[in-house]
Amino acid sequence: MAHPSQLGFQDAASPVMEELLHFHDHALMIVFLISTLVLYIIVAMVSTKLTNMYILDSQEIEIIWTILPAIILILIALPSLRILYLMDEVTNPHLTVKAIGHQWYWSYEYTDYQEIAFDSYMVPTQDLAPGHFRLLEVDHRMVVPTEAPVRVLVTAEDVLHSWAVPALGVKMDAVPGRLNQTAFIASRPGVFYGQCSEICGANHSFMPIVVEAVPLNFFQDWSALMLEDA
User: Fold this and answer.
1) Helix, strand, or coil here: 151?
2) N or C: which end of the chain has fewer CB within 10 A?
3) Which parts of the sequence belong to the Cytochrome oxidase subunit II copper A binding domain (predicted)?
4) Is residue 183 domain-shared with residue 110, that is, in the same domain?
5) Which DSSP category does 122 fall into?
6) How far apart are CA 188 and CA 13, in angstroms?
7) What count of other Cβ atoms lies within 10 Å of the Cβ of residue 228?
8) Cα angle 220, 223, 226; round to 5
9) How confident is the model over 166-216, as pLDDT tens digits?
């Protein structure tokens, strides 16, 4: 959950998000080192009156400043490609949920259960219970088991939407007439908030996403209750 004045990312709640945080720190350190070197060179050039004749026309220095950036780009590209492939992996999901974007709410269908499907609307400010977050709470949460691969099929009924939950490292566009898929593993129990990340009309800001991760036995109780109410 994000908080005011937060500078970094939300705490990771999935293995992929942990990898993304590590890659962010890795790339940030490279940018910091490059910025420090460039700043030092600028200060040295401005402040010193000495001139090195070998730097003004040197084959060796040209080779260095050509090869060194290429090496740095490789050090950034290889971990990035690894994470891209990890994010696309959907292997043997234990649960499949279909998320459908509407103007302006989400609906969820648990395709492993024929009768579990519901709409998820934002709770109006005047109806919020104590401890709930304004513009983020919904009347029906998407409930998933922890430590189990969950596949999410994302589509839309009307216009473009985007199903995004930052703590889980998930963001997938919802396109009418197209079925996109993504996957995640909730590594710990909790309630994780997201929002539609594609401008979709007047109430784009009012269709939040809430994923509640619970232990498997609690998920079984919840699914049994939903089947009874169906």
Assistant:
1) strand
2) C
3) 92-225
4) yes
5) B
6) 6
7) 8
8) 150
9) 999 999 999 999 999 999 999 999 999 999 999 998 999 999 999 999 999
CB 134 within 8 A of CB 125: yes
One-letter amino acid for residue 67 of the chain: I
Query: What domain count does the chain have?
Result: 2
Q: How far apart are the first and last CA of the chain?
A: 32
Name the pTM for this structure: 0.85
**Please, is 172 exposed, middle or buried when counting C-beta atoms within 10 Å of its C-beta (0-12, 13-18, 19+)?**
buried
Name residues whose C-beta falls within 8 Å of residue 40's C-beta, 6 or more positions apart in sequence: none
- Does residue 19 share a domain with residue 129? no
CA diameter of the chain: 85
Contacts (Cβ under 8 Å, ≥6 apart) of 125: 134, 135
- Report the DSSP beta bridge partners of residue 183: 151
Per-residue pLDDT tens digits for 49-80: 777 776 667 788 888 889 999 999 999 999 99
Q: Tell whether 5 is covered by a domain.
A: no
Residue 41 counted as domain residue:
yes
